[in-house]
Amino acid sequence: MNNLQPSQQLFKHLTAYQSMAEKLSKEKENKEKNPNAYDFLEVESKIKNFWEKEKIYSTDVSKLNSKTYSIDTPPPTVSGKMHIGHSFSYSQQDFIARYRRMKQGVFYPWGTDDNGLPTERLIEKTKNVKSKDMTRSEFIKLCLRTLKEITPDFVDDWKKLGISADFDNPYSTIDDNSRKISQRSFIELFKKGLAYNKEFPTIWCPECQTAIAQAELEDKEHPSLFSTLKFSVGGKELLIATTRPELLPACVAVFVNPKDKRYKSIVGKKAKVPLFDMEVPIITDESADMEKGTGVLMICSYGDRFDADAINRHKITPRIVLNPNGTLNKHAGKYEGNKIKDARRHILNDLKEAELVTEQKQITHVVNVHDKCGTEIEFIPTKQWFVKVLDKKKELIKQGQKITWHPDFMKKRYDNWVEGLEWDWSISRDRHFGVPIPVWHCEKCNEIIIAEEKELPVDPLQTEKKCPKCKSKAKPEEKVLDTWATSSLTPQIASSLIKNKITIPYSLRPQAHDIIRTWAFYTITKSYLHENKTPWTDMMISGFVTLGGEKMSKSKGNVIQPQQVLETYGSDALRFWAAGSKLGEDLDYQEKDLVTGKKFITKLWNATNFVFINLTDYTPKKVKLEKTDELFLNKLNALINNTTKYFEDYEYSKARSEIEKFFWHDFADNYVEIVKNRIYNSSGQKKESAQFALYTTLSTIIKLLAPIMPFITEEIYQRYFKKNEKTKSLHICEWPKSKETKESSYKDFDLVCEILSRVRQEKTKAQKSMKAEIILTLEKKEKESIKDMFEDFKTVTTSKEIREGKFNVEFI
Ligand SMILES: [Zn+2]
Ligand SMILES: [Zn+2]
């Protein structure tokens, strides 16, 4: 706020808001001037209430069957508000959901993901409590109570956006049912020998003080000091370069390459560690890179994953110097209690003072940091729970191949992730809030005691158990499951809401690409381990929203709030924009795209009103069609075919542009103009034929557009079509049916439009009115082709006469 010079981004962002507000007030002015103008705010809010009241999107369990299209909806985390990325990707999945609802019926469940850190923080803040001061179940109860209070407001943004999921029967990943399903999954994996508890050098975040999974790591370029230190062997110097001198007290061995002639004579001897009064064995190992540093490698417990492997491989006893909170322990001697970075500084200083450093180089290297807090990770041996995945890479890649990925190049990201796995899936977290691991340990005989099905969901901290073997009191497991261990079961959780009438594989998982390695991978893994099935047959992967080509972020001040966009342009316009990019592609937020969407909405509204002024006493009935109408309806048929195909292939952006083109060009600019006269000035079959075509076209166009622009299409349906179609809502009408159509069946209509456009050009060129009468000369072939449509054609071109010869427009 006290920034005197706001960044350009922020400035741009502010002007964007100002112009939005200006447009909004202009909108209101226009409305006062023209009472027939489309008031999206009023209509969208009315239609939203109508859907809710009539429960249009509620699942009717009795209607679910094998043909129902099922969606494993991403559950958003209840924290703050819907952001622009949400509005983008949820719109895209909703296009598919709405299409499928009309085509074959959908199961489109809704849930929220509430067992992670964001929810814990949110509850602590709103209720002014500390999760750790309460029992876990008390905190979970408070959580569920608070979520009940705040979720309706949170979810309302999704409803305003027109998301058509079943909000009436939602789940939360922390509710009793989800905890039960998650714990049951753990028990089953344990019984199958696929979940195990092991003391293991685990990836550890010293900031969050918990074990984390490989999927939570991010690479970060980091400057570092590469120092060459003097070790010694039998009084002779042995130089070793390292970036982590603070791990000297954890040094347990020194590796040299077996081919390295320089060090042949010292293999098997002991090296003295500088500053610390201890000696470590010198061992040959291929992993010592002769080219790097001095070719000698210091092995510590644990500098990285490689150290952990090496120590394991050579069966060396580790010397752990790091406490879980990131300070050094008593093995570090006088450095005990130092944080890692302080210890590094102190030890380097002392080494220099003792002249034990020969060379120092500034380097930049890539380090692993925790994605949630940016802290460099460490390796600490702790007892954690893992799920076996490393020995199943091949099978998991095969599972990925059974799924159809949209777009298909996203599958490569999944393959790369699985191929690059280096650890089993670590599923336990040293946190208080979450789904408890349903286990007790007997400290006397090492028996692991598992909860029984009837106890679930259970919190071991509040349930006493005796060891069935030695009868001594068992110690409850304090850890909770990682959030992904539960959210990887969203299909099973959603199925439980509908008495398992639909089970895996679901038809679709929609999600963003940044969570392929987590949410997608873990869900595929669980469905494979439990049921040897894929969780879904198809996946659709959305891209991100950018602003001026840059990722939006609060710190950059370049965040567009969808709530603001909804108020200024409405949901239909926002969705129109979201339909503008292909699946998987990032889309830049540009206000002009919203303006285009709004223009389209206005035109659709005006065209509809025009058509219905001329259809006031009309009820659709079969009629012998005039040639123009027949060919135009053939073209409409082709539109249905193309649009259907695009929606089938998740190509909603192609569907949008195809419908748009048809609407502007073929319908509004040409067909309506061509039949205007017949509607006004004729009667009987000729008029009825045009009326039939107009009615059919418009009712088809609003159905085809319904998935993308659900509000205006519903409003038009309710006003004009409902009385004939009898279905409560447009969105549960049947998708338009069509027969196979050849291009040849409407090419003469296209020719009419093409000549019409040439005539219009000539009139414009001659600065004549469009109503100016002409004598038109057409090539023989063209004239022949359109002769059955002469009457309409002559009227729309205001031709007195049509002659044969070279194309010419003569004004009279
Ligand atoms: Zn962390
Ligand atoms: Zn026991």
Compact summary:
By secondary structure, this protein is an alpha/beta fold. The protein contains 23 helices and 29 strands. The chain has a four-stranded antiparallel sheet with strand order 6-5-14-16.
Topology overview:
Blueprint: H1 8-33, H2 40-54, E1 69-70, H3 84-103, E2 106-107, E3 109-112, H4 117-127, H5 136-160, E4 166-172, H6 176-191, E5 195-205, E6 210-211, E7 217-233, E8 236-242, E9 251-256, E10 270-273, E11 278-284, E12 296-300, H7 305-313, H8 340-353, E13 357-370, E14 378-387, H9 393-402, E15 404-406, H10 410-419, E16 425-426, E17 428-429, E18 439-441, E19 448-450, E20 475-476, E21 480-481, H11 483-487, H12 490-497, E22 506-512, H13 516-531, E23 536-542, E24 545-547, E25 550-551, H14 562-569, H15 571-578, E26 587-588, H16 591-613, H17 627-648, H18 652-681, H19 684-705, H20 710-725, H21 747-765, E27 774-778, H22 780-785, H23 790-797, E28 799-804, E29 808-811
Parallel strand pairs: 1-2, 3-4, 9-11, 15-23, 22-23, 24-26, 27-28
Antiparallel strand pairs: 5-6, 5-14, 7-8, 7-13, 9-12, 10-11, 14-16, 17-21, 18-19, 18-20, 24-25, 27-29
Helix pairs in contact: 1-14, 2-20, 3-15, 4-5, 9-10, 10-13, 14-15, 15-16, 16-18, 17-18, 17-19, 18-19, 18-23, 19-20
Bound molecules: zinc ion (ZN) (2 copies).
Description of the structure:
- The protein has 812 residues and is an alpha/beta fold.
- Strands 6-5-14-16 form a four-stranded antiparallel sheet.
- It is elongated and about 115 Å long.
- It starts with 7 loop residues before the first helix and ends with a strand.
- The model is unreliable at 1-18 (pLDDT under 50).
- The structure holds zinc ion (ZN) (2 copies).
- Residues 442, 444-445, 447, 467, 469-470, 472 line the site of one zinc ion.
